[in-house]
Amino acid sequence: MATQPEHPPIRTYKPRRGRLTTRQARELTTESQYLLTADEDLDLESLFDGRPVFLEIGFGTGITTAQMAAQEPDFGFLAVDVHTPGVGDLIGRIHDEGLSNIRVIAGDAMQVLEHHLKGSSLAGVRSFFPDPWPKIRHQKRRLVQPDRAVLIADRVQIGGTWDLATDWSPYADHIELTLGACAHWRGGRVPRPHWRPVTKYEALGLEQGRQIADFRYVRTELAHTF
Question: Whole-prediction pTM value?
Answer without folding.
Answer: 0.87
